[in-house]
Amino acid sequence: MARGRRRKHHFSRIYAFARGKASNEEQSLIGGPGFSRVVFCNDPEGSVVKYQGNYVRTTKYTLITFLPKSLFEQFRRVANIYFLLCAILSFTPVSPYSAVSNVLPLVIVILATMGKEGIEDWRRKKQDIEVNNRKVKVHTGEGIFDDTKWRNLRVGDIVKVEKDEFFPADLVLLSSSYEDAICYVETMNLDGETNLKLKQALDITTSFQEDSSFQNFRGLIKCEDPNANLYSFVGTMEFEGENYPLSPQQLLLRDSRLRNTDYIYGVVIFTGHDTKVFQNSTPPASKRSNVEKRMDKIVYLLFLVLVLLSFIGSIFFGIWTKEDLVNGRMKRWYLRPDDTTIYYNPKKAAIAAILHFLTALMLYGYLIPISLYVSIEIVKVLQSVFINHDTQMYYEEADKPATARTSNLNEELGQVNTILSDKTGTLTCNSMEFIKCSIAGTAYGHGITEVEWAMARRKGSGLVSELKEEQSRIEEMSDENKISVKGFNFADERIVNGKWVNEPRADVIQKFLRLLAICHTAIPDMDEETGKVNYEAESPDEAAFVIAARELGFEFYERTQTSISIHELDPVSGRRVDRVYELLNILEFSSARKRMSVIVRNEEGKLLLLSKGADRYVT
């Protein structure tokens, strides 16, 4: 289905952009130590400094480092060090068995584990190849943008990123599909936040909204050097002889995603491992599970027992060897102490005891379970295969299966002792559904919330079965009445389909639904061919409220810089009417206010203050 063209609006006055502006003191640092980067916009060849390329690598090994680093990893295990010493001693006469029988098991164990590490690192390499070969539109001259691989991007390139695409490098926003050059950015890969961040370009570049606009575009950006701070950026843009300060409000970070915006234009300022996300990353760590660490402790204990047995045996061996030949009398005549090698020489009993100690260390080696390491590695690999094919861990909405990037920590899964979290969205899928509401002291909605489920499970199985029956009845009723709508799981015959007009407090219900349709910052995205309106909101809960208002008869369908238009159900005539509310101001939600408010003027000239938020702050 062809997607309708987005209507252009000005939204810059709706939002407050005070946060993140660079101070005069910060601007004065440009050109000094730590603030020496110079970017020639639309002219990558103009730079005299060769900056980092945009090729990235997240693998643990390279062809050169694989052998030494992987061998180091293998010999971090105590058992492998022991068997290496035994393998070396097996080439000496103190060995009680052949070298092959000692070296071969060790080589097999090490090669098997190194092979597993190599396969897992190759999977990381394939992911790096996929990322580096992604395509983005880059200005190649004459106002033409061609697809170019991410790895070929250079500092100073002008790129065009389209909706739902990831930013290929750290960019300075120049313009967007909105006339006032705002855009919405999802930074979930950076900080775990699913709420969208709002960015806005400088006023001087907002007019560059077509590919051809960049044919003769030239600019000079001076900014800070690469650093790990995600929330600060200091720089200036020199354009047409004037300098304009840059702040984090114009910075688009690599691995964040463009949302709710058709496209943006930006200039590349940091590439590859100079980007802030890679400045914050660390090389792949050598992770060892608690089980493996505990195994090492057990091996230490077994090795201590082995040394103790060998030491005691060697002491007695030395004593008996010394007494084998006394005054020409042979006690152990079958060892021929009168004609023997140094290993049984009564005249050098101390040396014979030491050599016997080394032989005993090898002979009692079955106490050290080298095969246990192999068994555990096999189990880990099989667990990784099961994880990758587990249908219950498949996320259908995003078409993402579970992927085990490493099998080293499989046994740690599920062993969670403590969770430190700032909010519930970190622990959930952060989706919101409109299930119930309370209006004028009356509860509406037959759905069952997660809180009610949890309370039922706590109180007993009888209540759980009752809730299940109630849930089945509600689902049957919903299936009969209408098609499921994402974010709206509400069922109550008293107010759906316009029946709220018959309720005793219909006037309050009307105000409640009107508030849901007006008090928000969502943007309607109408497909002009089908007439269907979708909402692009900064958070899932805000979208759920607007969808609920639409499904209950108050459809928000248009926003301009100064007005909000909705289709309302008129309780007098019973018909849908178009109402336009003049938007005077928006007081954004903040952690201090715990609420959001809008001030509007209705068609009768009456001023309305509409607020939504935490109940203790609104009531």
Record keyword descriptors for this entry.
619 residues; alpha+beta; 6-stranded antiparallel beta sheet; 32% helix; elongated; disordered N terminus
Task: Give your account of this protein's structure.
The chain is elongated, with a radius of gyration of 36 Å. The protein is an alpha+beta fold and 619 residues long. The longest helix has 34 residues, at 99-132. It is built from 14 helices and 24 strands.
What's a concise summary of this model?
The chain is an alpha+beta fold. The protein has helices at residues 24-27, 66-74, 78-89, 99-132, 188-191, 276-280, 290-322, 349-363, 370-388, 450-459, 461-481, 506-518, 540-551, 615-618, and strands at 37-41, 135-141, 144-149, 158-162, 170-176, 182-186, 197-200, 219-223, 235-239, 242-246, 251-252, 257-259, 263-270, 325-326, 329-330, 437-439, 442-444, 523-526, 533-536, 555-559, 563-569, 576-587, 595-601, 607-613. Helix 2 (66-74) crosses helix 4, helix 7 (290-322) runs antiparallel to helix 8 (349-363) and helix 12 (506-518) crosses helix 13 (540-551).
The total of helices stands at: 14
Structural class: alpha+beta
Q: Main sheet, how many strands, which sense, barrel?
A: 6 strands, antiparallel
> What Rg is obtained from the alpha carbons, in whole angstroms?
36 Å
Which outline best applies? elongated
User: Low-confidence runs (pLDDT<50, min 5 residues)?
Assistant: 1-10, 16-20
The strand count comes to 24
Q: Kindly estimate the percentage of residues that lie in beta strands according to DSSP.
A: 15-25%
Fraction in helix: 25-40%
Average residue pLDDT = 81
Strand order of the largest sheet: 3-2-4-13-5-11
Distance between the termini: 46 Å
